[in-house]
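Appendix B, Record 12. Input sequence as logged:
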Amino acid sequence: MTVPLPLRTRAFGALLKTVAKEPATADEMIALRAKREKLLATGVGRFVFGADSEDVEVSDVVAEIGGRPCRLRVQRPVAADGVLPVVVNYHGGGWCLGSPEQSRWMATRVAAQATAIVVSPVYRLAPEHPFPAAVDDAWGALQWVARHAADIGGDPDRMAVMGDSAGGNLASVVALAARDAGGPGLRGQVLVYPAVEMYERWPSEDANADAPVLTSSVMHTFTELYLAGAYGTEDWRASPIRAASHQDLPPALILTAGHDPLRDHGQKYREVLRAAGVRAELIDYPDTVHGFAALPGVAPPARAALRDITAFLREVL
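Logged structural output:
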């Protein structure tokens, strides 16, 4: 597959070279995780993944979730006064990689431009902590933020969830869980190239099997390591599109990339939500690849995605 022109840069080439080896085992995945985190601290990493917004204060808090300490990154606009809406943002990485660091560019700019507090939890990763550990942490973090919103200057009645890739999966799952539990009440969900189906194979996975950043084989490696002993089960907490009902969910904004094995996931989830009477908007960025929204240094459409996300959140919150 040809890399879309906006991504043909030396920095992006360096990034791909650093993480080019496709991990096939749990040990290789853990090694790749360390390599990616180290990359974030380099000049190339800072260029590719972008810098924080200077208008946002970034701090960490430690919450107790499920009897375990869980770190949450809190991003608040410096100049904003009063009580602000809250967005809980889940990072991507196939449930095996990643941290709030890789989505700081998006998180801090959403905070600044939507005038909201963005909270990014550190959830447990596979293969050390397979499904449903990430779901438990994601759901626990949302509940904790709702209970402690006032402590960080937030409004528990104006909350939304957001996530990219595996984080989009978790955001959609906790939106379902919040509906079923009768709260926290959510006003919106932003799902950026989310994974919503773990078992059925859709055409975009074959059409983009060898796409940059995420190939179909790596995608399935992530899934197998994440689900481990649960692989093959039809649990909606893994595949939110399989929930018994999608009624009464908050409005959704779904972003997809044209050259992405997961492209059909977002499109099909929009269809399911609309069929259930849920407002669901989808914006496709045809000349981009998976992960583009977190790569502002080499993917100009990342800034368009930021504008679309911010406009949606300002409206629903």
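The beta strands are 56-65, 68-77, 84-90, 117-121, 154-164, 188-192, 252-259, 280-289.
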